[in-house]
């Protein structure tokens, strides 16, 4: 019998575990249950945006959502965390001039 499981000490696995922990910490910090369905108003409050701003993000396909019937919109908690992590930017390194 062969297994395809990777050893726990492999770097990719360690990175994956660290990413999962960060993902979970972001969810916890915002009070988000990953597999709960949130209304647009609830979701906006959790990601600290106005409903209209969240709606525009959805219309631009910047955030995944659940279509519930013709007019119903909901979000899984993990979609909210995906959105939050997609908005993280890092500053560009600044060049240092030596005189």
Q: Could you characterize what this model shows?
A:
Mean pLDDT is 86; it is low at 1-10. The chain is 45% helix and 11% strand. The termini are far apart. It has a three-stranded antiparallel beta sheet with strand order 1-3-2. The chain has helices at residues 11-29, 40-46, 51-59, 77-86; strands spanning 37-39, 66-68, 72-76. With 99 residues, it is mostly helical. It has four helices and three strands; from the N terminus they run αβααββα. Helix 2 crosses helix 3.
Structural class: mainly alpha
Q: Describe the strand arrangement of the main beta sheet, using strand numbers.
A: 1-3-2
Taken as a percent bin, the fraction of beta residues is 5-15%
Order of helices and strands: HEHHEEH
Helix fraction, binned, reads 40-55%
Mass-distribution shape: extended
Oligomer: single chain
Biggest sheet details? 3 strands, antiparallel
Average per-residue pLDDT, rounded, comes to: 86
What is the number of helices? 4
Distance between the termini: 66 Å
| C-alpha Rg (nearest Å) | 19 Å
Low-pLDDT sequence parts = 1-10
The number of E-state strands comes to 3
What are the key terms here?
single chain; 99 residues; mainly alpha; three-stranded antiparallel beta sheet; disordered N terminus
């Amino acid at each position: 019998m062969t297994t395809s499981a990777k050893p726990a000490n492999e770097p990719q696995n360690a990175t994956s575990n660290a990413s999962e922990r960060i993902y979970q910490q972001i969810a916890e910090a915002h009070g988000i249950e990953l597999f709960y369905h949130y209304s647009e108003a609830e979701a906006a409050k959790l990601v600290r945006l106005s409903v209209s701003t969240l709606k525009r993000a959805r219309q631009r396909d910047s955030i995944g959502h659940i279509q519930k019937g013709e007019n119903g919109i909901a979000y899984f908690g993990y979609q909210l965390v995906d959105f939050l992590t997609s908005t993280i930017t890092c500053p560009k390194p600044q060049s240092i001039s030596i005189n």
